[in-house]
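Let's do one together. I've listed all components of the complex below, 589 residues spread over two lines.
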Amino acid sequence: MLTQGFFADFGMNDIWILATASLVAASTAMIGVFLILRRQALIGDAISHSVLLGIVLAFLITDSRSLPVMLGGAVIIGLLTAWLSDTLHRVGKLQSDASIGIIFTLFFALGVILVSLYAGQIDLDQECVLYGEIAFVPFDTIYLGGLENGVEMGPRAFWGIGVVFLIVLVSIVVGFKRLETISFHPNLAVSLGINVVFWHYFLMTLVSMTTVASFDAVGAILVVALLVIPASSAYLLAKSLKAMLFIAVAYSQASVIIGYSVAYQLDSSISASIAVSAGILLFATIILLQINKKRQTYQIPCLIFIVKHQSYILDQRVYHSSE
Amino acid sequence: MTKNSRSLPPPLSVEHLSMRYHHKPVLTDVSFTIPEGKSIAIVGPNGAGKSTLLKGIMGLIPTMEGEVHFFGESLTKKRLSTAYVPQREEIDWDFPIKVLDVVLMGRHGHLKLWQRPSAIDYQIAEQALKDLQMWDFKDRQISQLSGGQQQRVFLARALAQQANLYLMDEPFAGVDVATEKAIIELFKNLKTQGKTIICVHHDLNTVGEYFDWIIFINARLVAAGPAEEVLTKDNLNKTYGGRLSLLNDLTEEMYRTKLNQAHDTD
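Okay, and this is what the predicted structure of the assembly comes out as:
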């Protein structure tokens, strides 16, 4: 299908890369919708950085790189970031954005120190953590039934984000109405007996899992772009929460396809191209909406003119028809 | 029905409630008990703690001291029979949500996590919207409504909850005449069903006309009782403490209507 034109040597590796990127983008877009609506984009940024500490600690303690260990470490540190930021804000009387900035940079710096200390043991380098390298994703595969004579199952990163994508999807489908209410009006949710604190930390858990599973693919910096940009584009267009989720996912997938094509042509960084495409799509949306608004404001005076001179126009018609 | 309920515990009783905001006392030792089937206004100057009182009653802001009972029980047991209507300014009107979905939130508390609104829930939501003449707008995004229509959507949401006690934060602030009439009509209907309505209210000109009972608040309880008894010059003076604060009130009123006009035009 895709073997014609400039995708002549499009192979299995490209399919794995695209599939991984697509799942990363879809998961982050869905989570991003709630972060945007709850004005918590900054905490998404924070968690995406501080989970580094979680991964490193989990690895040093268990000596394992299996998915449950990585997710567990990330979730614990992610929740700790959210909780400590909030506590620093309440108890320390600091601004809430300053509190978030203090905690996550602290955690991230600790993570960087640990990575550099144990560089020999940890299969992570700072470059890779910050930027990710989705092009290498296909080379780290998992085997079902042992490394020697097992069946190759495809890239580790693909299955990691695949599991997280399913968790995110099921959580949103099941908890949709609750998430809608706590995002729309937390006080109203409290008055309806909804445990707002639980749902806040539940959302933070999803953010932690999504960012850690996206690490290999896009890194700690660009995952923020994928959390915030497609959801923001959707915010400009959507009339309901369900629509916003679908539009955000559509934007994220478009960014993946455009970004990948551009990277393929220019032989540049795939994840950065995806992030730039997401940004360009957002600005294109804003410009189109502005043009549309302008057109409407010109249409209205025109309509008013017609209504005002209606009788005159009608008179003319009567005059002509009677002739 | 209402005769028999004399023996039942009152819909709301507040005992020695004190609240603080950033270490400053906002409300001190407020106590009152509210009768069933009446409309009650909470009145006082700006910063008197009216909204704070309402939020404290609903458990949305921590209280320092005191107890609140709903029908003789704690709030957690009576959550669903108590409907809250927040102030219009506290709502994110750009949120991507449609009118019908807002109203269905009123049914939401009755449902378990995995349950979805049933046909009956939809019927109740439909009736609530029809009662407030908003059914035609059910598929509009809330940002595409005028101020009065937005207020009516939130009242419909409270109505769909089928509560016995309604707590509203300034439902009359900056609404059009049609909405004002719709709200008064709603109050009448609710009262004939024996339901109780408590509102934070700003407009002293209408308070005697719209409400059966008045609670005067200015950091403390000044007076509480039937409108014809407590709506006196003496109580007004005690609550508003001279002309200056009344003047402030008027300027804020003007600011609010301006704000509202700005919202209506866009």
